[in-house]
Structures are given as C-alpha cells and as structure tokens.
Write a structure and sequence with these properties.
The protein has about 230 residues and is an alpha/beta fold. It contains ten helices and ten strands. The protein has two domains: about 1-185, Alpha-Beta Complex (2-enoyl-CoA Hydratase, Chain A, domain 1), CATH 3.90.226; about 190-225. The longest helix has 23 residues, at about 205-225.
Length: about 230
Amino acid sequence: MIHAATDGDVAVVTLDRPQRRNALTREGLAELGDAVDDASAPVLYLHGAGEAFCAGADLDVVDGLKTREAAEFAAAGQDVARALATYDGATVAGIDGAARGGGVELALACDVRVCTPDATLAESGVSLGLFGAWGGTARLPDVVGRGVAADLALSGRALDAEEARAVGLVSRVVEDPRTVAKEIAANDHDAVRAVAELLRNPADPTSQEERERQTFADLVGTRSDEDG
C-alpha cells in the first residue's frame, strides 16, 4: 500500500493503492507512518500512484467503526500528519489528480504543496457528515486564512489547480511536482533543515529574530568549520 524509495537526496513515499484512489486504511496509515519515520533524506516527497493523490480515509473502513475505534482511527491519521509536520528536513506534497479529505490534510502537513494542472482539492467531509479530523481544522486556516478555510470546509467544494494556487493551498502548478523536491534538495542540506524547522514553529517576532540569528550563526559556523 505504501512504497518508499530514494531518488538522490529525495526520499520518495508513494501512496500505492490506485484502485481505491490511494484511500488509506488503518494498515495503510501505519505503513505510511513507518515510511516517514524511516526516511532520512533532506527532502521527503509524498505523492500518489495512478490518477489520484489520495482520497483520504477509506470510507469502507470508516463506516464500520464504533465510536472508540473512530477516535483511534482519527488519532492514527493525526499521528502520520504530525510525523510529516515534524520531519527532519523539508517535505513536499506532489498532488496529481484528486486530493480529498484526509489526502488534503496530509498535504497540509507538508512544508510545500505543488500540483499538476489536472489536480483538484477538496475538504469534502462535510458532504458525508464528517470533517477533517487529521489536523485539517488546525492547519487549513494557517495555510489559507480563516475565511477561505471556512468556505472550503463548510461547502466541501473542489478547487481546480489554478484556484488552489490563487488561495495559497498550493504554491505552484507544474507538470512534474517531483522537480520541486529535487530543486529544494539541491540546496545546502543543513540550511534546508534549519529553514524548514524555523518556518514551522514561528515565535513572536522578537523571539523569532533571535532564533533566526542563532540558527544563521550555527550554519555559518558549520561552514567555517568545514572550510578550516
């Protein structure tokens, strides 16, 4: 269900269940979490096999869950999203085809989201009596702002690639999203890791400036040590 490989300095994690639009079961979430935990490249690239990025949770699984089991399933998805959000390096979601529900939420946990012209994205849970329980209600407003997040989450409407870029849900529309991961990986790896960590955990402006100063000094010191 999950395929992990390395492409140079990029760890490539593929959601590989195309017959179900890469929808995730409990086993799939466990495999995905293990793949993220096992990766060590400076950049991790997440994408889907076939014609979809990820349809989110497998509804055939969800429909059979009791209340406690549903809470555990949501927690498993949150754990995977958290692993992506705290990865020791930069994470890139390459979206080709449909991303729905939990698929959007996994992409939101990544540092960079890029898509192809054929991509569509929707937080469609509300139409099914559900909502984004893999961190969607927390991360979506941070990415697109509260007003746009409310529109998307409450309407469940799908965005095409250009509207997704216009609202900031993705940063680029490209033919091959993996090229963006390789572009990032071509930079200094220590700097990539440092910048990714700083961007994820902004402090108040004064504290953030202090963190930037210290991280910059550490990176310069590392370069000086290598030159010496």
